[in-house]
Write a structure and sequence with these properties.
With 409 residues, the chain is an alpha+beta fold. It has 3 domains: 118 residues, Lipocalin; 91 residues, Quinohemoprotein amine dehydrogenase alpha subunit, domain 2 (Lipocalin, Beta Barrel); 156 residues, Glutaredoxin (3-Layer(aba) Sandwich), CATH 3.40.30.10. It has 6 helices and 25 strands. The strands form 4 sheets. A 9-stranded antiparallel β-sheet has the order 4-3-2-1-9-8-7-6-5.
Length: 409
C-alpha cells in the first residue's frame, strides 16, 4: 500500500511533462468559487462534501454549522495538494480544466480514497424525489446489531427542514460530528468530511424506524438500525471508565516535545487540580475537546489548575508523532503540555497497557479529574462536541461547575 501511495503522488507530480514548474504554477491554481467534492467509498456509494475557494491559498470546507478553514495548499506541476488543519490526511489532485481528480490520502494508515471535485456546484446531494419522511426526532440506534464484539449503541439527533437534514449520532465514546444531507423520498443521506474522517450514512426511513449503512472512507462499513424514541438516553459518560480496585491513583512518565520526562509527581502539579487528557492528534472529537480545554486553561491557569495531555499516536515514528503534536499545539494555541504516550498504533488495548490502573481505555478522548490531594475524583469517557448542540452546552456547564468545586476545596 505504501508503494501505491508513493506511485500515486509521483504520477500526479510528473503529469505535466515538458512544462517548467514556474509556467505551470502561473497557470494552474484553484479557481475561486464553490466545488462539489466526491469520495468513492464501498458498494459504489459516493460520499459528497462541498468547499469554497476564497483564494489560491485559502478554502473553506462546510459541514452543516461547521466551517473548516484550510490554508495549507501547495501547487506542484499541474497538481494541487490540500491539507486540512491539524490532521495528517491530505488531498492530492490533478487539474481537469476547472475540476479536480485525484485521491484523499492518509499515509500512516496506508489509505487511498478516489477523489473528484466539480467546479461551480454547491449541491452536496442531488435530490431525485420530494421527502416522504421526517427524521426531526430522537432515534435509539444500534450499530452492527448482533455482531459479536462490534455491536454498540448510539443516539441519533436530527433536524429536518423540507428536504434538508442536519444532525449527528452520539455514542458512548463521542459523536460523529457535523452531518449534513437530505431526505430523498424515504432515503436519508448524510455525510461529513473534516480531513481526518470521511463519513457517509444512508438509511431507508419509515415513520418510526431506520435501516441503514455507515461508511467510513473506503475501508470500513457497518449496518445500523434505529427506532424513534424521544426519551432515549445513553449511559452516563462518568461511569464507563474507572480505577481498578488495587490502585489508588494515576501514575505515568512520558516525554514532551523537548525530551523532558513529565509525571504527576513533578512540582508543577503539587497541590493543584489536574485534568489528564487521553487523546490523539488524529482524533476529531479530541480536537473539539482540545479547542475547549485550550481556552479554559488560558482563563484559569492562575487558579491552581493544570491540564496535561497524553497523546496516543498512530504515526510510525517518534519524530512524526511529535511533529503532529507540535502542529496541533501551535494551531490551537495550546499552552499546557502534550506528552507522547505511544506511537505506531492508537490501539486502545495497547493504550491501556500504558495506564494499567484504568479498567480500560474505551475512548479517545477520555479525561481524568484529579483533586489537589492527587485523588482521582472523576473519569469522563468521550466528548460531546459542538455538533451535539444542547449536550455540548450541558457538558461545559457541568465541567466548569465541577472544576470550580475542586478548586474551592
Amino acid at each position: 500500500m505504501r508503494n501505491l501511495i508513493i506511485g500515486l503522488v509521483a504520477l500526479i507530480l510528473c503529469s505535466c511533462k515538458g512544462e517548467t514548474k514556474t509556467e505551470v504554477l502561473n497557470e494552474k491554481v484553484l479557481k475561486t468559487g464553490m466545488y462539489r467534492a466526491v469520495l468513492q467509498v464501498q458498494d459504489n456509494e459516493k460520499l459528497p462534501f462541498v468547499f469554497e475557494v476564497k483564494s489560491p491559498k485559502e478554502l473553506y470546507i462546510y459541514n452543516a454549522e461547521e466551517v473548516i478553514e484550510v490554508d495549507e495548499i501547495q501547487y506542484r506541476n499541474d497538481s494541487v495538494f490540500i491539507k486540512t488543519p491539524v490532521f495528517e490526511g491530505y488531498i492530492a489532485a490533478k487539474f481537469d480544466n476547472d475540476n479536480l481528480e485525484g485521491s484523499y490520502i492518509k499515509e500512516s494508515l496506508g489509505r487511498v480514497v478516489p477523489f473528484t471535485a466539480e467546479y461551480n456546484d454547491d449541491r452536496r446531494f442531488k435530490i431525485k424525489s420530494k421527502a416522504t419522511q421526517n427524521v426531526d426526532e430522537i432515534w435509539e440506534t444500534v450499530f452492527s446489531k448482533g455482531i459479536d464484539g462490534d455491536e454498540y449503541i448510539a443516539k441519533g439527533i436530527f433536524k429536518q427542514k423540507g428536504d434538508s437534514v442536519t444532525g449527528t449520532f452520539r455514542t458512548t465514546t463521542g459523536d460523529y460530528r457535523f452531518l449534513e444531507g437530505i431526505m430523498d423520498g424515504n432515503q436519508m443521506k448524510l455525510s461529513t468530511f473534516d480531513g481526518a474522517h470521511a463519513f457517509l450514512f444512508t438509511a431507508k426511513v419509515t415513520d418510526s424506524t431506520m435501516d441503514g449503512q455507515f461508511y467510513s472512507g473506503n475501508h470500513w462499513k457497518e449496518p445500523f438500525v434505529a427506532k424513534h424514541n424521544e426519551a432515549y438516553e445513553l449511559p452516563s459518560a462518568n461511569e464507563l471508565t474507572f480505577l481498578k480496585d488495587d490502585y489508588d491513583g494515576l501514575e505515568f512518565s512520558f516525554p514532551d516535545e523537548d525530551g523532558n520526562i513529565i509525571s504527576l509527581s513533578d512540582e508543577r502539579y503539587d497541590d493543584k487540580v489536574v485534568i489528564v487528557q487521553i487523546m490523539g492528534t488524529w482524533c476529531p472529537n479530541c480536537l473539539d475537546e482540545s479547542k475547549y480545554y485550550a481556552k479554559f486553561y488560558e482563563a484559569n491557569k492562575d487558579k491552581e489548575f493544570e491540564i496535561v495531555a497524553l497523546a496516543f499516536e498512530y504515526a510510525e515514528t517518534e519524530d512524526k508523532a511529535f511533529k503532529s503534536i507540535t502542529r496541533l499545539r501551535k494551531k490551537l494555541n495550546i499552552s499546557y503540555p502534550i506528552l507522547l504516550a505511544q506511537y505506531g498504533t492508537s490501539d486502545k488495548a495497547k493504550a491501556q497497557e500504558k495506564l494499567p490502573m484504568l479498567n480500560h481505555v474505551l475512548s479517545y478522548p477520555t479525561s481524568i479529574f484529579i483533586d489537589k490531594t492527587g485523588k482521582v475524583r472523576k473519569i469522563h469517557t468521550g466528548f460531546n462536541g459542538p455538533a451535539t448542540g444542547e449536550k455540548y452546552e450541558e457538558f461545559k456547564t457541568e465541567f466548569e461547575k465541577f472544576i470550580n468545586a475542586l478548586l474551592d476545596e
